């Protein structure tokens, strides 16, 4: 009866017209401003040292957030010698890209650093967020508001998790890692990252934009949640910028990057694109890896970044760690000749596409990271690279069924959270590529 009531309420609410609340502000002047949360400022101010680590957190609700949290714990407790000093590997993390559930962990760490380990479990992982949202949805007062279900979720995230933080607060220290919170543009399929370079496409100022709203966009599963809407201002646009034209020229031999560049160019047609509607980042990349690829290949070209870094110490080794919380449960339909339901059919189709796309993404990134290492290398300064990919399929076969049955939701039991955190630590600690990285670091 409760499920029927929830379904009926969703159908009722879906039949009502709703409008996304727009809070992004226009740029005060054209061009970037000093102190913005941008890739340019990050490259200018960040100290790389001898080791650079980038992380990618996948989608998967609280399951993904807890697995990513476990990986951060293991990095914190893994101490190596870097530049002659004993340092935690977590201190060497430069960059975190995330989608959907993984964005809760990355955003919280971006805002609070090691405070994550003090209160993130109570603030999010062990909180029944799903029940709180359902109770709010069932409140008749909500039925007649015009802002939709996502605004209700944002208000909850603001009040209980992120406490009014904006992207200006993400710049807590100059050497903090850059956090790429990623969403999908529902209208054109553009993968959109919440950094100033992307907000420049909208002639908008990211510094005043709420972190809770970005995380809500990154995790807004279509139909269940309305898109997060932003205004596409026209006050700073005088044609496509030089970097975008150059990116389109560089991508002539790469059809996928061409599509990315063309999608970004649509923001310059402000008459047709007065607003953008952002939904779950997992739709365009459930691993959070392709955002890093596109930012570095399209947004500035890795060779251009190398040119800006010349004359500054470059890492002697950099590593990418992909944390994938996707599950692969046994399909119940194969136990009977009963025709699968619509939900089972749609779910199976989505899973097939997800796993195939993830496999292609992992191959792309592994090859790309090796190529980047070659670009950064010089005869007197060789640069090494390591790509680490962890997921539930790497666990012992006896443990996999338990994790494959953990749902994609915002309400997990304490036991499930505990085991996910432990799994994140174990998966990273026992990964052969990660162990090889540690041996290389020990050898100097």
Structural notes for this entry:
With 444 residues, the protein is an alpha/beta fold. Helix content is 46%, strand content 14%. The strands form 3 sheets. Strands 2, 5, 6, 7, 9, 10, 11 and 12 form an 8-stranded mixed beta sheet that branches. A two-stranded antiparallel sheet has the order 1-8. Helix 3 (61-76) runs antiparallel to helix 5 (116-125), helix 3 packs across helix 17 and helix 8 crosses helix 10. The chain is globular.
Count of helix runs = 18
The level of helicity is 40-55%
Number of strands: 12
Sheet with most strands: 8 strands, mixed
Structural class: alpha/beta
Series of secondary-structure elements, N-terminal to C-terminal: HEHEHEEEHHHHHEEHEHEHHEHHEHEHHH
Whole-Å distance between the termini? Answer: 63 Å
Mean pLDDT metric:
84
Uncertain ranges: 1-9, 11-15
Strand fraction: 5-15%
User: If you compute it from the alpha carbons, what radius of gyration comes out, rounded to the nearest whole angstrom?
Assistant: 22 Å
Global geometry? globular
């Amino acid at each position: 009866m409760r499920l029927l009531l929830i379904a009926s309420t969703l159908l009722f609410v879906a039949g009502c017209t709703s409008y996304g609340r727009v809070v992004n502000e226009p740029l005060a002047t054209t061009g970037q401003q000093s102190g913005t949360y941008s890739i340019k400022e990050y490259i200018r101010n960040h100290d790389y040292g001898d080791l650079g680590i980038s992380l990618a957190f996948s989608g998967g609700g609280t399951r993904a957030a807890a697995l990513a949290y476990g990986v951060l714990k293991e990095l914190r407790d893994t101490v190596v010698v870097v530049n002659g000093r004993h340092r935690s590997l977590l201190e060497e993390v430069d960059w975190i890209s995330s989608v959907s559930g993984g964005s809760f962990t990355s955003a919280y760490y971006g805002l609070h650093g090691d405070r994550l380990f003090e209160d993130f479990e109570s603030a999010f992982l062990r909180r029944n967020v799903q029940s709180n949202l359902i109770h709010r949805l069932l409140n008749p007062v909500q039925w007649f508001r015009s802002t939709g279900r996502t605004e209700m979720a944002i208000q909850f995230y603001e009040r209980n998790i992120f406490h009014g933080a904006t992207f200006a607060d993400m710049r807590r220290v100059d050497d903090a890692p850059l956090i790429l919170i990623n969403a999908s543009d529902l209208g054109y399929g553009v993968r959109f990252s919440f950094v100033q370079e992307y907000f420049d496409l909208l002639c908008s100022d990211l510094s005043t934009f709420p972190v809770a709203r970005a995380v809500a966009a990154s995790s807004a599963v279509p139909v269940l949640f309305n898109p997060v809407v932003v205004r596409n201002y026209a006050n700073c646009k005088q044609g496509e910028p030089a970097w975008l034209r150059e990116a389109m020229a560089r991508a002539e031999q790469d059809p996928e990057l061409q599509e990315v560049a063309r999608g970004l160019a649509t923001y310059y047609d402000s008459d047709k694109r007065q607003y953008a509607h952002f939904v779950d980042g997992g739709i365009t990349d459930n691993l959070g890896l392709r955002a890093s690829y596109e930012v570095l290949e399209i947004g500035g070209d890795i060779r251009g970044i190398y040119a800006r870094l010349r004359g500054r110490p470059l890492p002697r080794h950099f590593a990418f760690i992909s944390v994938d919380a996707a599950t692969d449960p046994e399909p119940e339909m194969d136990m009977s000749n009963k025709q699968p339901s619509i939900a089972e059919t749609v779910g199976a189709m989505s899973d097939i596409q997800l796993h195939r796309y993830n496999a292609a993404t992992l191959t792309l990134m592994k090859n790309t990271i090796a190529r980047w290492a070659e670009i950064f290398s010089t005869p007197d300064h060789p640069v090494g690279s390591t790509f680490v990919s962890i997921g539930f399929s790497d666990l012992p076969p006896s443990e996999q069924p338990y994790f494959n049955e953990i749902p994609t939701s915002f309400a997990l039991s304490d036991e499930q959270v505990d085991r996910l955190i432990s799994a994140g630590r174990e998966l990273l600690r026992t990964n052969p590529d990660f162990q090889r990285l540690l041996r290389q670091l020990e050898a100097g």
